[in-house]
Amino acid sequence: VWDGRRMLALDSRGRRVVEVREANQLRTVAAGPFEKPVGLGSDLLGRFAVLDDRTKTVSLFGSDGARLGAYAMGAAGPSKAAALVMYPSGGCGVTASSGATVYRFR
């Protein structure tokens, strides 16, 4: 994802978010308490979020990689999450793997 100034990627095996630099060099931006990270989203202010399908949480990070908080999806979220998007107006949405339903969080 593009966060307004750099390209970020989710390293699901390494359970971290990385900045993709020139010559495919990776720099860790955030290493979570992620168990099964499946989605990454960002806004154009440098903030980004990680969707963890096992813990059913969306963790929000500042541009410096500091964790700002988390949304617990609980029963309101999909049983199997597929993708994450951050809205310019704030909040985020999670889509289910079984369809196009979007679950919005603030």
Terminal Cα span:
20 Å
* DSSP strand content: over 45%
Q: Main sheet: which strands, in order across? A: 4-5-6-7
Task: Please give the number of β-strands.
Answer: 10
Radius of gyration: 13 Å
3D structure, described in words:
With 106 residues, the chain is mainly beta. The chain has strands at 7-11, 16-20, 26-31, 37-42, 48-52, 57-61, 67-72, 81-86, 92-96, 102-105. The strands form three sheets. It has a four-stranded antiparallel β-sheet with strand order 4-5-6-7, with no helix packed on it. The protein has a three-stranded antiparallel β-sheet with strand order 1-2-3, with no helix packed on it. β5 (48-52) and β6 form a beta hairpin. The radius of gyration is 13 Å and the shape is globular.
Which labels suit this protein?
single chain; 106 residues; three-stranded antiparallel sheet; 0% helix
